[in-house]
């Protein structure tokens, strides 16, 4: 038995699934070979079946599909600029009021004000 590969990427394992699936190997056997080569944590049996289904339906991409919904972060350059402009207009404006005006969560406004812009309360 060969030594398992310790460092691998998701794309590499998905490429192996695609290759073996195109050769007509069953998903259960593909999972067994992946577990032997990359270790048990490389890809679950259900995920191998899912990828085989997608490749059987004609999928060619190995990457993740774009996800719908709220973006991962709202601390982008546009929001940072908008928060900075509001603070420069009224330095007494509270985080809660900024969040309401810009319609973004208070936690994001707090992160922008303190971490990104580096503003602190002065007594």
From TrEMBL:
InterPro entries: Mos1_HTH, Transposase-MT_Hybrid. It comes from the Eukaryota. Residues 59-80 are annotated as: Disordered. Gene3D superfamilies: 1.10.10.1450. Residues 12-51 form the Mos1 transposase HTH domain. It holds the Pfam family HTH_48. PANTHER family: MARINER MOS1 TRANSPOSASE-LIKE PROTEIN (PTHR46060:SF1). This is Mos1 transposase HTH domain-containing protein.
């Amino acid at each position: 038995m060969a030594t398992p590969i310790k460092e691998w990427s998701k794309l590499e394992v998905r490429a192996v699934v695609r290759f073996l699936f195109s050769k007509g190997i069953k998903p259960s056997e593909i999972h067994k070979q992946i577990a032997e080569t990359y270790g048990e944590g490389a890809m679950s049996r259900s995920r191998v079946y899912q990828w085989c289904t997608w490749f059987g339906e004609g999928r060619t991409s190995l990457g993740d599909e774009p996800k719908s919904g709220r973006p991962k972060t709202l601390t982008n350059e546009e929001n940072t600029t908008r928060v900075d402009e509001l603070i420069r207009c009224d330095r007494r404006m509270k985080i809660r009021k900024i969040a309401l005006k810009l319609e973004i969560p208070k936690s994001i406004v707090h992160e922008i004000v303190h971490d990104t812009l580096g503003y602190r309360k002065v007594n």
